[in-house]
Amino acid sequence: VGVCVIPIRYIGRKMLARARVVQSSQGDLSSTLQENFSSQRDIRAFELEQQQIRLFRDRIRRYIQASIGAVRWQSLLTPLIEFVSAIAMAATLLVGNMNGMNMGDFAALATAMYLCYEPVKKLGAVHNKAETLNAGLERINHVLNAPDDVPEPENPRSPAAWKGEVEFRNVCFGYQQDSPVMRNIDLRIPSGQVVALVGPSGAGKTTFINLLCRFYDVLSGSVKVDGIDVREMSKKELLSHIALVSQYPVLFRGSVADNIRIGRPDASDAEVEEAGRMSAVDSFINETGEGYSRMIGEMGEGLSGGQRQRVSLARAFLKNAPILVLDEATASLDMKSEEQIQKEIERLASGRTTFIIAHRFSTIRMADRILVLEKGRVVADGTHEELMASSPLYRELYNKQQMVAEEEGGAPC
Predict the structure, then answer these.
(1) Residue 16 is inside which H or E element, if any?
(2) Could you read off the pLDDT of 37-80 as tens digits, one per residue?
(3) 153 belongs to a structural domain
(4) Could you tell me the strand order of the sheet in which 194-198 lies?
(5) Structural domain span for residue 76
(6) Do residues 87 and 200 both lie within one domain?
(7) 292: CB partners within 8 A, 6+ apart
(8) What share of the chain is helix, strand, coil (3-state, %, to 5)?
(9) Nearest by Cα to 365 from 352, 384, 351
(10) What letter would DSSP give residue 263?
(11) Which of 60, 76, 124, 249 is the most exposed place for a label (fewest CB within 10 A)?
């Protein structure tokens, strides 16, 4: 039994190494499948079918080779244990014969050794299985035990009343320490003010929102909401007071009501329907006669872009948070759909501290204040009229939008 432990441990180490390769190749194969299922239109549009078929075959080949290697080592265990057992039996017979062991004693010893064989073989199989599962567990633990770069405070604080006042005090931030993307941002946004963030791509608009929502922590300075640094707040409580409407709203497989209720899971049916009316979801929800129980597919399959955006706005209405973030909320819509949704957005922003990120200047007409960002700095701050007179960058961006709107046959911004 002691000798059998040696091949069991040796093969177990080999199985662990092979299982890691199997897990990695299986992950690559799954990723390739997911990419192909979710990108069928693009693959057809760019005629990538043969390229993806070759890639898929390569992933399958690697997975099969890794699996064969694992099976090869796993299959080696039983013959090794049998070989060790046979040698032990022969050695027992030889030593017993040399020491005058009679047939009865030898039969008893041989029977005991034979009875040990099956448990040892099972022990080896269990050990191999455990090592295989350990490889998968390593991948899971790599995610579960990843360090939290945005830790919860030990003693979280919260405002006496959530009003939505936001302050950036000398904020600097970079996704990498030596590459700052925001520099010396210093401003205060009173509660209830509608603020638009404009600027060229990469200017820091989305980073501004990421810091407000505390998806990242600042490198220096502070971001405060109602006078309290967001690093001193519970992340869950902070985000429960921020409603985010993104360019590509994520909808889940289920009913329309379930997707709206994500904004507030404990909301009643009446509250969900009221949010639907305020966001004009009811303008299309009864087309099939199912109402808010209408089922939609994964990622909102079955709804148009404008309808998905209305469901996303309904979530924000239902959440009724003091801070509203509209991150390119109408960028994926045509001008007609944008005009229709603009009314709901203005109603949603009323009375809330609102941040609007938009490349289309028609979206920011409702803004009380416009911040112009360039290379991580706020280079201009004011109303549309003030910026047209004082900011060359804002004028340039605005004039480009005018030209685009005229070329598309729409109304000027």
Answers:
(1) helix 2-38
(2) 877 777 887 778 888 889 889 999 999 988 888 888 888 877 88
(3) no
(4) 242-246, 323-327, 353-357, 194-198, 369-374, 377-382
(5) 2-144
(6) no
(7) 255, 256, 257, 260, 269, 272, 273, 276, 285
(8) 55, 15, 30
(9) 384
(10) G
(11) 60
